Amino acid sequence: MYDISKFSVKPEPIILGIESSCDETACAVLRGRKILSNRIISSASEQAKYGGVVPEIASRMHTEAVDEVCRLALADAGITPRDIDCVAATYGAGLLGALLVGLSFAKAFAYALNVPFVAVNHIRGHIAAAYLDQPDLKPPFIPLLASGGHTAILHTSSYTAFEVLAATSDDAAGEAFDKCARVLGLPYPGGPNVQRLAEGGKPAINFPSALVKNSPSLRFSYSGLKTAVINYCHNAQQRGEQFRAADVAASFQCAAIDPLVKKTVELATRYNVKTVTAGGGVIANDYLRATLSAACKKAGLTLVLPEKKYCTDNAAMIASEGLNQYMAGNFSPLNINAAAAIPLK
Ligand code: KG4
Ligand code: ZN
Prior knowledge:
The protein is α/β, with parallel strands linked by helices. The chain has helices at residues 44-48, 55-77, 96-113, 122-133, 173-183, 190-198, 223-238, 245-270, 286-299, 316-327; strands at 14-19, 24-31, 34-42, 86-92, 117-121, 142-146, 151-156, 162-168, 219-220, 275-279, 302-304.
């Protein structure tokens, strides 16, 4: 009989993490915070044919890949299923049909092994990527979170609690990168392609900043910036004028990223927190990494910047957040369902 009240917490547990919220089917094994394996099978090249993620294709490809990706992760880690102390999987936010594949697989795995299951909030997973980079990292710290679905600056007060200090009121930063790529005719995934194009351009165009001005609370907005980029390109095309796409990309990138960097450092200083961390796909952006590193250094803050492969979607970060919840004894019941949207807090 599977009974979550009977499970106990072991030190240095072996955690199997599974991620399937979008187009990556991923599985990783951690011993404590040590990464024993980290495998990803991506459907991105298939999705690129359609210019973005087609949910039905994502679900089907997860179904085909989930067994194989776990088999590979176990083999890389040199363990058998019987060595696993806990299974953790993303239950939201993401594409419902995609989430259900990894979640159902993980719940069945935990049931068969009779070990605790932890349902992981994907966003918390992105925050927990910082512990992979710095296993000794201890709260409090200020995470900058920027992905395809979320953009926020947080205050993490313990391994399981955080507060939202600033967030976007509309689109996420990654979404804006993807839209900017589309209007510039760049292929999916947009973010890395905008970055590459921006490297050869100058930030000469005055696009609106992603920081909302004259607001009582600290907020970001990416829909105005996105519309400004679309209008700039369409107006030039209608007038039959040439424009420098590299300058558009560079100007957009500065307007999207500079306020995130500036406000993260300001908030860390205001809250007297000495450590800044970062997570989410947009944190793989080289311009963001360089400007955030320089700003933290200047302000005397320690920056924990996970490797790029732990910023974009992966299962090691899900296992890392699984460990936070496991150590707190927060095991999930097996009837937990997938959720397309989960409030940030
Ligand atoms: O965290 P993630 O892999 O998936 C979500 O949870 O959304 O983030 C994906 C987002 C996409 O919008 C992608 O374009 C963006 O991260 N991204 C980047 C870069 N690499 C990925 N944006 C800007 N520059 C990059 N180098
Ligand atoms: Zn993500």
